[in-house]
Amino acid sequence: xxxxxxxxxxxxxLPMPAxxxxxxxxxxxxxxxxxxxxxxxxxxxxxxxxxxxxxxxxLFVFCTWWPQLFTYIARKHSRSKKTADxxxxxxxxxxxxxxxxxxxxxxxxxxxxxxSDVSFEIVxxxxxxxxxxxxxxxxxxxxVHAALHESLMEVSKRMDYGYGMDRVDVMKxxxxxxxxxxxxxxxxxxxVRKIFHxxxxxxxxxxxxxxxxxxxxxxxxIFILSGATIYHEVSSQLNNMKRLRDLGxxxxxxxxxxxx
Length: 260
What we know:
With 260 residues, the chain is α+β, with helices and mostly antiparallel strands. It has 8 helices and 13 strands. Strand 1 (4-8) and strand 2 form a beta hairpin. The radius of gyration is 24 Å and the shape is flat.
């Protein structure tokens, strides 16, 4: 087994085992404008719940429209992006439908179930199905391309034995599992976002106003049609996600060789 060495990727980001080669083409450009670090705070989250109750749910509605509002109220601002628990991602509103998104920061180590003799920690998060790793030198997160640049001769040499466990351990920490997880959104979350959409809120207030002035039958009809529309949209979105998952599932057995 080849021991790990302190070979760093792109200005001291990641330690790699001997023989693993990365070049700067593996570090991609960012898909966001800026990121703001936050820490978890039970106290601020409790304040957020009290404000939601005190506003009769209006704050919760506003947070569904502007998710950054929830982050600023329920999270505590952090000075360091590396030690943050959450990151508020601001994307280009001309490119993505959702301009703000809160993501969870992960920390991968090779202490557990590792055969490597060098321990390290990788701080990363995922955004738009891409992984971003913290660069200790630049003090920023950089997107890592899930690709290794190897010649056909180099690939042929390891066909009989595969990678060593030390190299497998580090590569899994950097790139993650060799899978494309398509996690479906919960039905209740989709439903809440639909019913708190400004259009359906306007429909609800309109129905209440029509009932108050005597247009009861018309208001009930509009309310039923709006409910049926929400049900159809939620069902269609869930079915589309299910078909997408079924399309991406490949049940094939492969032989994986690891040279010890």
